[in-house]
Amino acid sequence: MEVSEIKTALDAQGEAIKAAMAKYDQELAEHGKASTELTGQIDELSGQYKALRDEIADLAQRQTPAGGEADIVKTAGAEFINSDQFKSLATGEREKARFEVKNTVVTGENMPFEMQRPGVIPGSFAPLTIRQQIPTITVASNSVSSLRELANTNSASETAEGTAKPESAITFEPYNVQIETVAHWIKVSNQLLADAPAVAAYIDTRLRDGLAQRIDRQLLLGNGTTPNLSGLTDAGNFTAFTPTSGANLVESINKAKYNRWAVGEVVDTVIVNPADWAEMELLREGAGSGAYLYGAPGTNAGAQPFGVSVVMSQHMPAGSFLIGSLRTSAIIYQRQGAVVEMGFVNDDFTKNLVTIRAEERLGLGVDRPAGIMYGDITAA
After folding, report:
1. In whole angstroms, what is the distance from residue 259 CA to residue 226 CA?
2. Residues 142 and 221 in one domain
3. Is 253 exposed, middle or buried (0-12, 13-18, 19+ CB in 10 A)?
4. How far apart are the two ends of the chain, measured CA to CA in Å?
5. Does 373 score more than 80 pLDDT?
6. Residue 101's CB: how many other CB atoms inside 10 A?
7. Which of 285, 308, 286, 287 is nearest to 295 (CA)?
8. Cut 0.70: pTM above it
9. Same domain for 65 and 182
10. Could you tell me which residue, 259 or 107, shows the higher pLDDT?
11. Which distant-in-sequence residues (6+ apart) come within 8 Å of 278 by Cβ?
12. Phi, psi of 7 (to 5 degrees)
């Protein structure tokens, strides 16, 4: 039975009980006792009322959070049935019962029919895919300096006895990674933080996710000009890929993979725009009428063309791709993990506001640009 139906039935039962009790009083006044039929009618009405009351109590219990207590609605009939006068009447101890109703609540805010869903219904959280491909180490300074190999000339060869041995050459260059700060903030009221802890916790989650989203983008596209990170596609951090006219994505992946293999780099990851990979999933044999190359729709064939794992990112420009041995070619230097702090700024105190700030400090180092290749999928 629906809540509205129970409420209507309760009201009707209450009125019926009140009418029966009025008739009971009248018969007592006229005859000194009530008829057996009327007494039975009162018993039947009270039983029906108790059943309805138990049903509404059960609904209230199911809608009350664990550990809480529900307020059972108190109608005139319910209060009468719970009274000592009615109990003594029902047991035959007295023939007449009088009950006065005070401050009766029949509808309104105490009715436990509405349920509050806990927490906050979240918005969309975009997948974070790039950072997890790159190892991270913690540092304790604002920059990291190192020396990396710039070029290696290997002249090793077989030599005859008594002849001059060939000379090889290795050159190095200093390499510096600057630690940058990624941050944002939001203002909220003191009342919100105090009265809605679920909302406050959600704000914390959203601020941290905002940092992570921006960092994922900077790791790929940062241009290296402070305060930007020097991302994987920043000049000097990759080897340029020369595309072939008319090539599709998997063909360019194959070409780039073996281009890097030839210089000693075994690539393991390719970053692509989701729209470009979607085209690959639709590739079919023959003239486009044969079987799907990457598995029929409804099956999970995986995304590893030629043994290279595909990582999709909305930050990768459509029509371009990056391939490389990311776990050995790049590294994230983390100075400070994501921190969320609260405080008063300017006139926050007088306005009952709090400023919540989230920030993280890190830098990206590309140790071996030869291990990363980046460019267009096909020639224009």
Report:
1. 33
2. yes
3. buried
4. 68
5. yes
6. 14
7. 285
8. no
9. no
10. 259
11. none
12. -60, -45
- For residue 124, being part of any structural domain is answered with no
Nearest to 272 by CA among 379, 146, 129: 129
Amino acid sitting at position 25 = D
Q: Among positive and negative, which fits the CA dihedral 301, 306, 311, 312?
A: negative
State the chain's maximal CA–CA distance in angstroms. Answer: 144
Torsion angle, alpha carbons of 187, 190, 193, 196, to 10: -110
Dihedral angle, C-alpha 212, 215, 220, 223, nearest 10 °: 160
Q: Dump the DSSP string for 86-142.
A: HHHHHTTS-S-------S---SSTT-TT--PPPS------PPP-SGGGS-EEE-SSS
Same domain, 10 and 139: no
Q: Tell me the backbone φ, ψ of residue 15, rounded to 5 degrees.
A: -65, -40
The CATH number for 281's domain is 3.30.2400.10
The domain of 8 spans 3-90
Six token digits for residue 258: 């073996």
Separation between Cα atoms, residue 280 and residue 302, nearest integer Å: 12
Assess whether 84 and 174 both reside in one domain.
no
| Listed residue (168, 231, 171) closest to 369, CA to CA | 231
Q: Which amino acid is at 257?
A: K
Q: Which among 131, 272, 140, 274 has a CA at the least distance from the CA of 209? A: 131
- Residue-wise pLDDT for 21-64, tens only, equals 777 667 766 766 667 776 777 777 777 766 766 666 666 555 54
Is residue 267 within 8 A of residue 281, CB to CB? The reply is no
What's the full length of the chain, in residues? 380
Stretch 209-221: mean pLDDT, rounded? 97
Instruction: Read off φ and ψ for residue 74, nearest 5 degrees.
Output: -110, 100
